[in-house]
Structure formats: structure tokens, C-alpha cells
Design a protein that fits this description.
Layout: H1 5-9, H2 19-32, H3 43-62, H4 89-99, H5 105-114, H6 118-122, E1 129-130, E2 135-138, E3 141-144, E4 149-152, E5 161-164, H7 167-187, H8 208-222, H9 231-242, H10 247-254, H11 259-265, H12 270-293
Antiparallel strand pairs: 1-2, 2-5, 3-4
Helix pairs in contact: 4-8, 5-7, 5-9, 9-10, 10-11
Length: 294
């Protein structure tokens, strides 16, 4: 709003704003909207601006400040979804082995086995975990601002969720908690007791950018396909769907607003699932017909 929409459209009185004004801004943003002067914004960025602008103007409409929402008559730029890169179980195992003993290991493990976002993983407190019950509660996300590291509400309403942890992850977390307790004793009063699961040696939060850099360095060392930290989330979802886990369950683990969002993002997995469903149906029906014939 402050960096793009207000400078471009803020001089227009609210009641005078037209769909054409908004459409012309989107054209400008795509062609030369970058603040550094190096070309236009991506279609994804402008589409995000459209969603934000639409919601703001819709609120103005509901408050009867305007007679209609001009953004409703404007089409957002079409976003072409990039083909995502995910890891196989073997590739993920190689990555985890390479990460063992590093500050990034638990963060990588949590992302890969729960589907949590980077900020959600870094914001996890020990109070959010019940290792006896084997669950983790996602209720906040850590973000890097221009001046500091802070916490924010989850991305969507569905992002606040409870996730069941695999036994492998529970075992690793128990070991990690003991190691963290030893670090706390060694540093004494210098340790910042923030109760974070993933923290620096002195207990302070891990910078999200630093985590991504550590992650990419490990990816290069292992020789697996180039993936971002966020692709661990895609890997988790893809592996679950390929194993036949109900998409509704996958959607709940990822914190999506609805199962349709999950199916849209991971539509690349569906053809294989369709074939598997057909094979299982064929096998079950064939066995039933054979028993009937006998």
C-alpha cells in the first residue's frame, strides 16, 4: 500500500476512483513498477496488490463510503504457476543426514515432516509442543522486518492448526531439547531464554534469511536438485498425496483455507493418484467377481 498503491493512486479521491484507473496502474506496475527502476513487478506481486486493494475497497463499500467496489471490475494479472521442485524420500534423507549436527537440522526436519512454513518453524516455542501426545500447535510466524525480528499472526485463519508429529521427529526433538539445555547451562546468564525450539546458540531467534542460506549450502553439498527451504513444504505435501493420504488431511497439515487450494497447488500429483485409484478399484472389483463366480 505505502510503496506502490498510495504513490500511484493516492491522489485520486475515493469516490472518483474508476476501474480504468486501477487497470492502468496494473499495466504500469507490470512494465516499470519496481522501486529500483529495473523494470516491472511480477504478475504474482501485482495479483497480490489486487487482492489487497480489492479488500480495502470492499470495506469502503460496506461502510457506504463508495457506491461500488471499482476493483471488482478489474481483472488481476494471470499468474502462471511455476513447476515446483520436490525431493524424493531418498533425497530428503540425504539432506537430513548432511544437516545433522548443524543449527538448521531441527528446522529442516520440522518443515519436511509437518509442512510448516519457514516462519512458522522458527516461531515454534517448546510450549507449542506436546511430545508425549506427539503434536505441535502452529499459532504464530516469525518474520524479518527492516529493523528487527518479530512475530505475526498466521498467514490465514486456517494456518492456526495442530499437527501430529512423526515418531522420528519426536525422537529428534527430545534429543534437541537436551542439547539446548546443555547450551543454556554453559552460557549461564548470557543465554536469552526465549523458549524457542529453533534458536541460536545463545537462545536468540534465528534470522530467516540466515536459515535459508545455511539450507542452500547444504543442498549444494549433497548434490540433490536445487530446492528452496519452502520446497520442503511442497515435498511433504507431495509425498503424502502420493502415499494416498486424504487431501483433506494434507490441507489441514499445511494450514490451507480449503482443500480446493491444496488440490489446485498439487494438481501435478493427481494424475498418478487417479491411476492408482483405478488400479485399486479394478483389483477390488475383480476379486469380488471371482469370489462370486466361485
Amino acid at each position: 500500500m505505502e510503496k506502490h498503491l498510495i504513490p500511484s493512486l493516492g491522489n485520486i479521491h475515493l469516490a472518483d476512483l474508476t476501474p480504468l484507473d486501477i487497470d492502468q496502474y496494473y499495466i504500469f506496475a507490470l512494465e516499470s513498477g519496481r522501486l529500483d527502476g529495473k523494470g516491472g513487478l511480477s504478475a504474482c506481486s501485482v495479483a497480490h496488490e489486487h487482492r489487497l486493494f480489492f479488500e480495502a475497497l470492499q470495506q469502503a463499500f460496506e461502510w457506504e463510503l463508495i457506491r461500488r467496489n471499482p476493483a471488482a471490475a478489474v481483472r488481476a494479472p494471470k499468474v502462471v504457476r511455476k513447476e515446483m521442485t520436490t525431493l524424493s524420500e531418498e533425497q530428503l534423507a540425504r539432506l537430513l543426514k548432511a544437516a545433522q549436527g548443524s543449527r538448521a537440522y531441527i528446522a529442516i526436519l520440522l518443515a519436511a515432516t509437518t509442512g510448516a512454513r519457514r516462519g512458522e518453524v522458527l516461531a515454534l516455542h517448546w510450549d507449542d509442543l506436546d511430545l508425549e501426545a506427539g503434536i505441535a500447535v502452529i499459532s504464530r510466524s516469525l518474520q524479518l522486518t527492516e529493523t528487527d525480528i518479530s512475530y505475526k499472526e498466521p498467514k490465514t485463519r486456517g494456518s492456526s492448526r495442530t499437527i501430529t508429529l512423526p515418531l522420528f521427529t519426536i525422537t529428534a526433538l527430545r534429543k534437541h531439547r537436551k542439547e539446548q539445555a546443555r547450551e543454556k547451562l554453559l552460557l549461564g546468564y548470557e543465554y536469552k531464554n526465549s523458549d524457542l525450539v529453533c534458536a541460536q546458540k545463545d537462545g536468540t531467534p534465528i534470522n530467516p534469511g540466515s536459515l535459508s542460506k545455511m539450507f542452500l549450502a547444504m543442498v549444494r553439498r549433497t548434490g540433490i536438485p536445487h530446492v528452496r527451504f519452502h520446497d520442503l513444504r511442497h515435498t511433504h505435501a507431495t509425498q503424502l498425496l502420493r502415499r494416498g493420504i486424504n487431501p483433506k488431511v494434507v490441507s489441514e497439515r499445511l494450514g490451507h483455507a480449503s482443500v480446493s487450494v491444496t488440490l489446485d497447488i498439487y494438481s501435478h500429483v493427481l494424475p498418478g493418484m487417479q491411476q492408482e485409484a483405478a488400479k485399486k478399484t479394478d483389483k477390488a472389483l475383480s476379486l469380488a467377481m471371482a469370489r462370486l463366480a466361485a
